[in-house]
Write a structure and sequence with these properties.
The complex is a heterodimer. By secondary structure, chain A is mainly beta. Chain A is built from three helices and 31 strands. In chain A, the strands form eight sheets. Chain A has a four-stranded antiparallel beta sheet, with no helix packed on it. Chain A has a four-stranded antiparallel beta sheet with strand order 5-6-7-8, with no helix packed on it. In chain A, strands 9-10-11-12 form a four-stranded antiparallel beta sheet, with no helix packed on it. Chain B is elongated. Classes of the chains: A mainly beta, B mainly alpha. At the A-B interface, α2 and β20 of A face α1 and α2 of B.
Chain lengths: 395, 68
């Protein structure tokens, strides 16, 4: 006989697809696997380990989700408003319109305060970005951009530059100069580049980096000087509408909210999504951290605002009322975190008691929907931007 | 619910859920106490909460008496 060795194939039902066929006897990590050649090829191509398949992964994901829900529910041993029963009730708020900033020719979409507590920047559908002095109503700078719907604007921590972006799919940084005759638009520098509109931007703790959120479903961290993408954050399955940076004491995280009804918390260094919250029933329009950094609030088209505790990893309060049926577009906390100001599409701003969950007051005055509310850095005033082309300062 | 039809998507989802499941969580009775405490500690320095004198708030108009 010739010296030929044959691979003695066994014949029998495959351990994966259970069809009877010639089996390849292979060992993975010393475990014998008897799969048919088709299943072995499939396994090798798709990088699965033994026993995994689309169906088994789906089952694992379902069981992990159930386990997560159980873990979260275990911790919900008391309600926030129960703990807050001993806290004294708030006296009624005497907050009135103190200034009306007129100057935009179309809907004001966004605004941000400067750290000096008196200047603010606003951006509008008319393509203009204006820097105001809120005390004197003086317009310090005005930039005309070549596109409409400037949805994002932010003031640099140093007060020397502003960032803005929107339908041009970019976020640009404009250095502010003291010379009134200088054409600021010429010094505009495009930093961020997305594949869809830019919905929000914020400078990280210095003037060096910029964090943006976009309608393309991602957030990104950019180096302003070089325009380089430092980190990108993927995980949302729809447009990201808002983002907020954690207050500086608590580290390198930020929260984002989007049209997929999810609010995600991210680690800025690794790009990892560390926590995810899905309890809203519609698009999340705005997210904002609590001043201590341990919690955040969100505003949504489902007419509710919700408060999430990061250390307990769950929602702890819902701010809603039967009479409020219009979506909330923006939220911000007062300086101590006791009050939550929320702007709605029914032209009002509702003020909620964060701890007790009840509405303290409602602010009327705007003649169209509120697009943004922001409390000044020292907490003395609230600024609201609206589709009625004006901004109002309340104190 | 996101459509998890492709294998790569489901693998990513399972990875993400494993990361989240391994997180250390604290009971609300402990964390919420901190939230309430923060509010109480900073109550005095919140101008919108405790009404501060009109003279120190730059946005409130200072009323002056005019003697005719």
């Amino acid at each position: 006989m010739c010296d030929q060795t044959f691979v003695a194939a066994t014949f029998g039902p495959c351990e994966n697809c259970t069809k009877p066929s010639p089996l390849l006897n292979i060992y993975i990590k010393s475990e014998p696997i008897n799969y048919c050649s088709f299943c072995v090829e499939q396994m090798a191509c798709e990088g699965l380990t033994a026993g995994e398949s689309l169906a088994s992964l789906k089952r694992e994901s379902e069981s992990l989700k159930k386990k997560l829900d159980e873990e979260r529910n275990k911790l919900s041993d008391v309600q926030l408003h129960q703990l807050a029963e001993k806290v004294e009730a708030l006296s009624s708020l005497s907050v009135k319109t103190r200034r009306v900033l007129k100057g935009h020719n179309n809907k004001v979409l966004n605004m941000d305060w400067c750290k000096d507590k008196r200047r603010l920047v606003s951006s509008s559908q008319d393509g203009k970005v204006i820097v105001w002095d809120a005390f004197t109503l003086n317009k310090e700078h005005g930039v005309s951009l070549p596109y409409t719907w400037v949805m994002a604007c932010a003031f640099a921590p140093s007060g020397c530059a502003v960032a803005c972006g929107g339908l041009d799919n970019r976020c640009s940084v404009i250095p502010l100069s003291l010379d009134p005759n200088e054409n600021l638009a010429a010094k505009k520098k495009a930093v961020a580049m997305h594949t869809n509109y830019v919905s929000g931007c914020v400078f990280t703790n210095s003037d060096v980096q910029l964090l943006t959120s976009s309608g393309d479903g991602s957030c990104a961290l950019w180096d302003i000087e070089s325009g380089q993408l430092l980190q990108s954050f993927h995980g949302h399955t729809a447009d990201v509408l808002s983002l907020d940076l954690a207050p500086s004491e608590t580290g390198n995280t930020f929260v984002s909210g989007g049209c997929d009804k999810k609010a995600n918390v991210w680690d800025m260094r690794s790009g990892q999504n560390i926590q995810s919250f899905e309890s809203h029933q519609s698009d999340i329009n705005c997210v904002k951290y609590y001043p201590s950094g341990d919690a955040f609030a969100s505003a949504s088209d489902d007419a509710t605002c919700r408060f999430y505790d990061l250390r307990a990893d769950r929602e702890v309060a819902v701010y809603e009322k039967d009479s409020i049926i219009f979506g909330a577009s923006s939220v911000d906390f007062s300086f101590s975190g006791r009050l939550l100001f929320a702007g709605y599409n029914d032209y009002t701003i509702n003020v909620w008691d964060v701890l007790k969950g009840s509405r303290v007051s409602a602010l009327f005055g705007h003649e169209n929907r509120i697009s943004r509310v922001r409390v000044s850095p020292d907490g003395t005033a609230l600024c609201s931007a609206s589709w009625d082309n004006t901004l109002r300062i309340w104190a | 619910m996101s459509c998890c039809n492709s294998l790569a998507q489901v693998q990513k989802l399972v990875e993400q859920l494993r990361v989240e499941a391994s997180m250390e969580r604290i009971k609300i009775s402990l964390t919420a106490v901190d939230l309430v405490q923060y509010c109480q500690d900073h109550r005095r320095s919140d101008p919108l909460l405790t009404r501060i004198a009109a003279s120190s708030n730059p946005f409130k108009d200072k009323k002056t008496c005019v003697l005719l």
